Amino acid sequence: MFKSIICVLVLLTFVTLTEVDKSEMDYRDPNKVSIGTSVIPPNDFTVVHKYAEKFVIQSYHGMSAETVYQTMDKENYFILDVRENDAYCAGHIKDAVNIPFHTIMQTSSIDQYPQDRVILTFCYTGHEASQATAILNLLGYEAYTIQFSATAWRDTTSVNVWGGSKPQDIYGGNFPMEQC
């Protein structure tokens, strides 16, 4: 039910916040969709449906902070920090790009997302990052949330959160962060 609601909200956001330029795209062919200045026309969700179905079938879209930290030197991740600029400047992952959550669907933001790299989303606790991950996957990107985001990346104290039927402790990795 939650994923269905997210899909509908993303589709509505997608339709209302983007520009349409049919002249530059064949929107019926998912391999030819141009993300950014050209998008799917409002009444044709064929491509979005394809990516939404793929997203819902794939059961997990997250990576632990530890896995990211251990692999970031050899992988070419695009780290998208969706927190507000002041939080980003107070401490962010090396080479992360700051695009606040409320602006991720703007054309100027979409134009920055690489189509040939894995995108990792990062926020305060993982909630907004998860929403950004869903949106990016619906647009055809390969995106994953850094689980518990800043909480798991930097904090050294444990945080008790509910996961499923039992609470789980999240111990931050105290991994390095840069400042503006």
TrEMBL record:
It comes from the Eukaryota. SUPFAM superfamilies: Rhodanese/Cell cycle control phosphatase (SSF52821). Residues 73-158 form the Rhodanese domain. SMART domains: RHOD. It holds the Pfam family Rhodanese. Keywords: Signal. Residues 1-20 form the signal peptide. This is Rhodanese-related sulfurtransferases-related. It comes from Anaeramoeba flamelloides.
